[in-house]
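In this section we turn from sequence analysis to structure. A common task in structural bioinformatics is to predict how a protein folds when a small molecule is present, because the ligand can shape the pocket around it. The inputs are simple: the amino acid sequence and a SMILES string for the ligand, here fe (ii) ion. Study the lines below before reading on.
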Amino acid sequence: MKAVGLAWYSLYTRTWLGYLFYRQQLRRARNRYPKGHSRTQPRLFNAHLCPPGVKVLPIPVLSDNYSYLIIDTQARLAVVVDPSDPQAVQASIEKEGVDLVAILCTHKHWDHSGGNRDLSRRHQDCRVYGSPQDGIPYLTHPLCHQDVVSVGRLQIRALATPGHTQGHLVYLLDGEPYKGPSCLFSGDLLFLSGCGRTFEGTAETMLSSLDTVLGLGDDTLLWPGHEYAEENLGFAGVVEPENLARERKMQWVQRQRMERKSTCPSTLGEERSYNPFLRTHCLVLQEALGPGPGPTGDDSYSRAELLEKLRRLKDLHKSK
Ligand SMILES: [Fe+2]
């Protein structure tokens, strides 16, 4: 990270200036998007079964973040992932008529954890989960890799995925108890066709974290922390212009975004087909971005080097 970026990141994460910046972003977004930045649809799994199933409700917050309410519809218990705007999350809790029993934080950044204080004060028995390495505000229940949080029939496994922050966790809702697909709440590790910036780790760290989620099933639904699909697929087209899966997904995403509809969720199977950050093993990317044949004819980047180069190119692409 460049010196200016590093200084800003330290101020954002380690001082009250970061919190004040978040509060300003919150006020601006509430004024600009009184009904949220995107139109979202809840996903109901096996509602017709007895006992009924599980509901995932994306809540659009700030200018492009998502919080997620995960509801056991039989017990009427809910957990929320990354509640950055407590007002928007509370409105959804009241509309659904559920009890909030847990907050799951993927990482410490205010746009993911800023609502912890208000929600945990309002819901007295609400537990706050996250990594103890990440300085999550109002954390009550520290989690380690592979720990499971149980709420009613919800079984949610924490997976350590450092790189964006040192203690970044993703959460995997097991689909087995409600006979549906598993759901991955990926915070700022993985987005539709993109991945988060490596603020607190190396390219090797980030690659290892991406490989952790690559090991999950193709039908796993991906619920990311931000609505970045259109921009990310645009970048993927620069590095892999011949990829037809990307082209098809881009056409669908553009139709969705014209009506301000959310693009969540995609599946991990889809992501494998077009997300360049999950394709560092592919020859086509190595040929496009690698150093090319050297004197011995066998020069190539390691997957971590390729990931690092992709990340640099993506940052340049965004700043254009
Ligand atoms: Fe973040």
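The pocket of fe (ii) ion is lined by residues 107, 109, 164, 188 (CB under 6 Å). As an exercise, try to locate the residues that line the fe (ii) ion site and compare them with your own expectations.
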